[in-house]
Amino acid sequence: MLQRNFKIADRYVLNYKIYQSVRASIYAATDSNTKTPIAIKIEDGNASKDYFNTLDKEYQMLKLLSGVKGIPKYYHFCIEKGYKAMVFELLGKDLET
Fold first, then answer.
1. Coil, helix or strand for 14?
2. Can you say whether the dihedral through the CA atoms of 33, 82, 75, 97 is positive or negative?
3. Per-residue pLDDT reduced to its tens digit, 60-93
4. Distance CA 90, CA 59 (A)
């Protein structure tokens, strides 16, 4: 389990977990360079190979849907300390704020 203040790409800092599934966790986080609230979805590197590739596919879809209303902006994708991490816009409860 990742702890508060865990850093992704020496820039994105985890604040707290928003959601947990079998395959991934989503965290509210902060971009330490801009102080902007963001979200980070993380897949555990210990998951099976099929599970570990799910985030790659989601990342490709976000890139394709870039600019569509209600779809979060994508900021960064990396493998960090045994985890795959996708950094994206933190949306509000109604997916439009």
1. strand
2. negative
3. 899 899 899 888 899 999 988 888 899 999 987 6
4. 15
- The token pair that represents 15 in the structure block: 């604040």
Task: Give SS3 for 5.
Answer: coil
How far does Cα 58 stand from its chain's mean position?
Answer: 10
Q: Which of 78, 3, 66 is nearest to 41 (CA)?
A: 78
pLDDT tens for 26-38 read 999 999 999 999 9
The two structure tokens encoding residue 46: 């210990």
Q: Report the 3 state secondary structure along 17-84.
A: EEEECCCEEEEEEEECCCCCEEEEEEEECCCCHHHHCHHHHHHHHHHHCCCCCCCCCEEEEEEECCEE
